[in-house]
Amino acid sequence: MVNSLKMEVGIEDCLHIEFEYNKSKYHLRDIVVGKIYFLLVRIKIKHMEIAIIKKETSGTPPNIYTENEQVAKYEIMDGAPVRGTHTYIYYGQ
Questions:
Q1: Which domain holds residue 37?
Q2: Alpha-carbon gap, residue 69 to 82, rounded angstroms
Q3: Exposed end of the chain (fewer CB within 10 Å): N or C?
Q4: CATH number for position 77
Q5: Which of 51, 8, 3, 6 is closest to 23 using CA atoms?
Q6: From the centroid of its chain, how far is CA 63?
Q7: Which of residues 86 and 18 earns the better pLDDT score?
Q8: CA–CA separation, 34 vs 19, rounded Å?
Q9: Which residues, including other chains, have CB under 8 Å from residue 81's CB and lie 6 or more apart?
Q10: How many structural domains comprise the chain?
Q11: Which InterPro entries match (predicted)?
């Protein structure tokens, strides 16, 4: 994916997950497209969710005000993944 955003999260020697999204910022009407790679899975995962968070920033330095609001939350996986597999993300209106 060109201009994609990649993130890695994990627990040492237990879990290593890599997220890849097609963009780093989205409009509220955009379609979120991405993949989740399960590189190491040694713990039981019951489910996985993705949250859409709206971030608004106003003001000028040093008086900047930022507000975050969770717009939606979706379950993207139910059950345990297997190492080496991946899941696709495709959400939008």
A1: 5-91
A2: 33
A3: C
A4: 2.60.40.640
A5: 3
A6: 29
A7: 18
A8: 7
A9: 38, 41, 45, 87
A10: 1
A11: Arrestin-like_C (IPR014752), Vps26-related (IPR028934)
